Amino acid sequence: MRRVLFLLFIGLAGLAVLIALGSWQLRRLSWKEALLADIDSRIADAPQALPEHPDPERDRYLPVAVSGEIEGEELHVLVSVKMVGPGYRVIAPFVTDEGRRILVDRGFIPTTAKQDSRETGPMRVEGNLHWPDEIDGYTPSPDLNGNIWFARDVPAMAARLGTEPVLLIARAPTGPGITPLPVDSAGIPNTHLQYAITWFGLALVWAAMTSLFLWRGRARKKG
C-alpha cells in the first residue's frame, strides 16, 4: 500500500508540474502575441522626425522620415533572402538636412550586383530605427578588404563610416536595383505554443506511465 501511495504521489506531483509549465507557456504565448501586435502597430505608424538623441530601447522600431543626401560609400552585409538566394544588405551613410550623419539600410542586392554603382545624392528616406541583435560568439569578424560583413553591428559600422550609431532601415526603394528589406516582427521568435504542446504532451505520457505502474503493481499484488 505504501508503494502504491508513493507512486501515486510522484505521479500526481509530476503531472501537476508539467501541466503548470504548459499553462505558463500558454500565458507567455498570449503575452508574446500582444507584444508582436504592438510592435507591428508601432512599425506601421506614420513616420516622424529623427529624435535628437535616439535610444536603442525607447526608439526601437520607431518610424522615421529624413531628408538629405545619401553618400556613395557602402558596407555590404551578407544575407540570404527566401526564394531569391544570397546577396547583401547595403548600408550607406546618410547626411540629413540638419547635418547629422546616420546609417541607412537601403535593402537587398544580389551578389552579382556588389560592384555596381547605385543612385546617391538628395533623397527622402522613410523607414524604422533599429539596433539589430545579430552578433554572437560564432559571428565572424568582417572582411574589411572584401567589404563583407556578417551581421549589422551598428556601433562598428558607424565607426567605420563616421556616423552616429543610428540605423534607419528603409521601407521603400532608395534607388533602382535595391529591394527594401523593411523591419517586421517575423524575426522575433515566438515558440511558446510549441513549448506548451511539448509540456502537455509530456504530461500525457507521465499520466500514462503512472497509470501503467499502478496497474502493474496492482496486478502483481493480485498474482
TrEMBL record:
PROSITE patterns, alphabetized: SURF1
GO CC terms in record: plasma membrane
Domain of life: Bacteria
Keywords for this protein: Cell membrane, Membrane, Transmembrane, Transmembrane helix
Signal peptide annotation: none
Subcellular location: Cell membrane; Membrane
Membrane topology type: Multi-pass membrane protein
Transmembrane helix listed as a keyword: yes
TM annotation in the entry: 195-215
UniProt keyword Lipid biosynthesis present: no
Family recorded in the similarity comment: Belongs to the SURF1 family.
Protein name: SURF1-like protein
Organism: Ruegeria pomeroyi
